[in-house]
Amino acid sequence: MNISRHIVLGSVIASFVLAGCASPKRSFLGASLPKVAYKDIEQRNKPLQLKLIVEFQRNGEHFPKGDIPLKDYAASILRDSGVIMPVDDDKAEGQIRVVLNNVADSGTVAAEASRTGYPLWMIGKTITDAYELSMFITLQEKTISRTGIKQAVHTAIGNMSIPDDIQTFPQAQAFPRVLEQMLLRSLQLMQQSGELVWQGMPAVVLFEKQSR
Known about the structure:
By secondary structure, the protein is an alpha+beta fold. It has helices at 9-18, 67-81, 107-116, 120-123, 174-193, and strands at 26-29, 48-58, 61-62, 84-86, 94-103, 125-139, 142-157, 169-170. Helix 2 packs across helix 5 (174-193).
């Protein structure tokens, strides 16, 4: 997948700063929400050139150390989507603001167990990082937004057994993977509602990207 080329040293740093578990383990995305791939997003013939503003939070409080990796990964994901091109102030025709909150969500594990049919705490121990994303796009004095976009990433510890049908990845990739899902879902919802078609700039599929 495209994001993999950006996961080198930065992903290792991000995993220590943004996740609750520091040792290298196997992680997997929450199963309570359908996955969104880049091919599910309609590219634009001319991506929106927007200034990217981010804020990383922990339980609703600003956590400045998370802003830099959040901005780096968000810029890469948005660029790869073919919908938005993050640019400097002098080239921007508007702005996109991304707020990501790392929350303590006790209901996340219950939702996972309900969808998958297996209670995670019975087959081993996991650490769950739950996230909630809000995205605001302002262009020509009009703002569209999506809030309350949720996703979680689970990290297996000890001798936990993960079912074969669950796609896993190194814990260092957990943060960009979960962010990717929430940003793509936000763009998809905005496209499905028709909000990203305003300004007479319809979305056009230029080519189909490989599913992640």
